[in-house]
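Table S2 (continued). Query chain:
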Amino acid sequence: MEGQKHSKKSAFRKIAEWLHLWLGLLSGIVVFIVCFTGGLWVFRYEIGAITEKHQFVVPQQKSFLPPSVLVNKAQAYFTVKGTDSAKLTGIIYGKKDRSAQLNFSFGKKGIAYLYMNPYDGRLILDKRKPDAYEMAMLLIRAGHRFLWLPQKIGSPIVGSACLIFLIIIITGLVWWYPQKWTKRTVKKSFTLKRRAGWKRLNIDLHNVFGFYASILLLFLTITGIYYTFGWFRHGMYRTLTGKVAVELKEEDPLSDTTVTPKPATTIALDHIWKYVTHRHADFGRIYFHAPQLPKDTYQTMVFFGDGTIFYNKETYFHDQATLKSLPYVDPNDKPYAEISAGERAYRMNFDIHTGQILGLPTKILAFLACMVGASLPVTGTIIWYNRKWGKKKRPSKVNLVNC
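Corresponding output:
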């Protein structure tokens, strides 16, 4: 119709806007908590580097001590303390500036984490309980994953809210997309009107920041739903690899329990240490898991880069008695170099979700996206309130005739 300034909205656009509004109001609180806590958790390692000084040592131009030396020094320490019942459960070596961590169990009496200098075996810290940093990170993660509710209750709520959030992001992009591209709509869609009033600024914060963060939020949300719903996880695996996911009951190979005697743990660990470091001198972190039951194996996981990346790792299994290298059982333990592009993308899920896939730059992007995601329910609710109840009532005109 000639002279009409605004074209009529299509039924699709009306439905999209209706879904965006009411699904946003329905899931707003959950989305705010999940995004805000997720943003904080992105920098858990950086925060730990500031608060956990016992995790660091002065780098030296010499090799690390082998596991046997560290374990013997730790056992001597426990003997002096009168706790000879300590049983080794694992050892972690890091980069040249990292302390070695030895994990021990006292059965029902608790556990101990000994942080030692890997160059001389000096004890740095004997930690028996989580410190303030760890408690804070556990609290943040519990909010992010379960809303501080029992897992069976909180996890489905978070997962469902994330599914709803996917619809909100998509319908938000539909709402954001101008019906007609002009110089005015381009400026309105991509920039903030800084000199506008607070209501206009709030709308721009919701629309413009929401648009810029939308792609990242889609990735973060999809990779987060993975941890709640098995059907979603299996669907993602099939989509990326073209294969059907198989749930294995037994994930690790087993040691031969008929062979005796078995070598001492310290001898076994030294053998595995030489075996693994010969293959991966450039490791970022090595975790040795000591067997606790006769059927268990020695399991070693090697991480690369700075040691915090999970998708690219090598896993080794050694028989307790023979120290023979055993083949993996779980497909997730298959060497990264031997898997397909789709399987590699599937393994990257955790590192994409936490923003650590490419180091600090992607962490910063993930943090900013999470903060924008947390702001969207707030700015969106304010927009809805202002449009429904926030309009100023015009003063009624005075009847001058009757004055």
